[in-house]
Structures are given as structure tokens and as C-alpha cells.
Specification:
The protein is an alpha+beta fold. It has 5 helices and 5 strands; from the N terminus they run αβααββαββα. The structure holds iron/sulfur cluster.
């Protein structure tokens, strides 16, 4: 159960959370925290990056699974349509591009 709580906390921090912070947040000791982190990493549910915080070596815990589009990516979605220019390999004539025109209309409709 505590593993699920830890996973939820990590997943709610898209930019990751320091291991020391999650330990304090959950009110657990560092040994138990390390055990839980290792279990989640073994299950490929999170990843752990080295980080220096206030001159001390610690770890940043990051979600691995898809947890929804980020703020930045939401700007590329209009009425459920992702920007057609992303990954496009068509010969590009934006002035007459049908997919782009459709997407711009979706942006306009969404903002109306
Ligand atoms: S404008 Fe049209 S052709 Fe050009 S990149 Fe976007 S979708 Fe592709």
C-alpha cells in the first residue's frame, strides 16, 4: 500500500521529486524509503537520477509511465487534434496545407 502511495506522489511530480523530500513527506526512515524506491525501480515504474542538493548527493525520483500530456504539449492539442506539423514529412506549403488549416480552425474553435 505504501508503495502505491509513493508511486502516486512521484507520478504527481512530473519534474521528479527528491528522495529526501518524499521520505519526509511520507514520514518514513531512509532505509524503508530506499527499499521502496528499489522495489518501484525493479518494477520499472520509476527511475532515479543522481542529483546534488545543497552540496549533498541525493536522488531525484521520476515517473516513467505516461501520465498525460504536459502543459507544453497541451498547447499542441486543439479539440483533440495534435498539431499536424509535429513529425510531418510532407513537402511543406503552409499557406495551402489542408492538415494545418484544419488544425488552425480547431484552435480557433477551441478558443471561441
Ligand atoms: S504546414 Fe503542413 S506540410 Fe508543413 S509541416 Fe505542417 S502539416 Fe506538414
Amino acid at each position: 500500500m505504501a508503495d502505491n502511495e509513493m508511486l502516486e506522489i512521484i507520478n504527481s511530480h512530473r519534474e521528479g521529486i527528491l528522495q529526501s523530500d518524499i521520505r519526509k513527506l511520507m514520514g518514513i526512515d531512509s532505509k524503508k524509503c530506499s527499499r521502496m524506491v528499489n522495489k518501484l525501480m525493479k518494477e520499472h515504474l520509476i527511475r532515479r537520477d543522481d542529483e546534488l542538493a545543497e552540496g549533498r548527493k541525493t536522488y531525484r525520483l521520476l515517473p516513467i509511465g505516461f501520465i498525460g500530456p504536459s502543459e507544453r504539449h497541451l498547447k499542441l492539442i486543439a479539440n483533440g487534434i495534435f498539431s499536424p506539423c509535429t513529425g510531418c514529412n510532407l513537402e511543406c506549403y503552409p499557406e495551402t496545407c489542408y492538415p494545418l488549416n484544419e488544425w488552425v480552425l480547431a484552435v480557433i474553435e477551441e478558443e471561441a
